[in-house]
UniProtKB/TrEMBL annotation:
SUPFAM superfamilies: MetI-like (SSF161098). The chain crosses the membrane at residues 20-46, 58-78, 98-115, 201-222. One of its GO terms (molecular function) is transmembrane transporter activity. Belongs to the binding-protein-dependent transport system permease family. HisMQ subfamily. NCBIfam families: HEQRo_perm_3TM. It is a multi-pass membrane protein. One of its GO terms (cellular component) is ATP-binding cassette (ABC) transporter complex. The gene is glnM_1. Keywords: Amino-acid transport, Cell membrane, Membrane, Transmembrane, Transmembrane helix, Transport. The keyword Transport applies. The keyword Transport applies. This is Putative glutamine ABC transporter permease protein GlnM.
Length: 231
């Protein structure tokens, strides 16, 4: 039986590969959150707009995105979308780390679709009288949502958004299929170079578990600090 040697991953070149992959995975998740949360808020707000056209646009976006696997989104944005661009621009993109950009685009659109439904649920939990009160004060629909409804819905919206963040963290691993050198990609590279599959993927597993536990801890602390009480 082959002896397992985790020490080879705790220092040296392979350690650097894996750590760089872990850091890139974290960067993908953070950048995606920065763009996905505001987009999700916009989509959720449009889902509740008084105009059928706006609601139709938002519904079409959500259904079109979340009913297609994330893998398909990744492949489309990396291989498919650039085909509509001039050859010079396409070559420039592929020469300037378009893999990571494609992954972020796919992750943002995919994550925002799911988050928008959680935000919409939080918005719908606010009594309709709050909207009427805002309109009575002279606010328009968007201003009422911004100043009255959204702030009140945060308490019930944040916990499911943290859960979606956990899903996002795990989804970053799919970026390996388009050559993004994130954690799973680097673990596979180490395995191919050393034939040490257990060690390399054990490191990757530990990395995913570590960050997942941090996200879970944030969720737990938030719910302890701001418990949701039934009315």
């Amino acid at each position: 039986m082959k002896n397992f040697d985790l020490s080879m991953l705790l220092s040296g070149q392979y350690h650097e590969w894996l750590v760089s992959g872990l850091l890139l995975s974290i960067q993908l998740a953070i950048i995606t959150l920065i763009f996905a949360v505001p987009l999700a808020m916009v989509i959720a707000t449009l889902r509740m707009a008084p105009y059928a056209v706006l609601r139709g646009v938002a519904i079409s976006y959500v259904e079109a995105i979340r009913n297609v696997p994330l893998l398909a989104h990744m492949l489309f944005w990396y291989f498919g979308a650039p085909e509509f661009l001039p050859e010079g621009i396409k070559e420039w993109l592929y020469d300037h780390n378009f893999e990571a950009a494609s992954a972020v685009i796919a992750l943002v659109l995919y994550t925002a679709a799911f988050m928008s439904e959680d935000i919409r649920s939080g918005l719908r939990s606010i009594p309709k009288e709050q909207m009427e009160a805002g309109r009575t004060l002279g606010f328009g629909f968007m201003k009422t949502m911004q100043l009255v409804i959204l702030p009140q819905s945060l308490r019930v919206t944040v916990p499911p958004l943290i859960n979606q963040t956990l899903n996002l963290w795990k989804n970053t691993s799919i970026a390996m299929v388009i050559g993004v050198a994130e954690l799973m990609y680097q673990a596979q590279q180490v395995e191919s170079s050393t034939f040490r599959g257990f060690e390399s993927f054990a490191f990757a597993t530990a990395g995913y578990v570590m960050v997942s536990l941090i996200i879970y801890a944030i969720s737990y602390l938030y719910q302890q600090r701001y418990p949701i009480r039934s009315v």
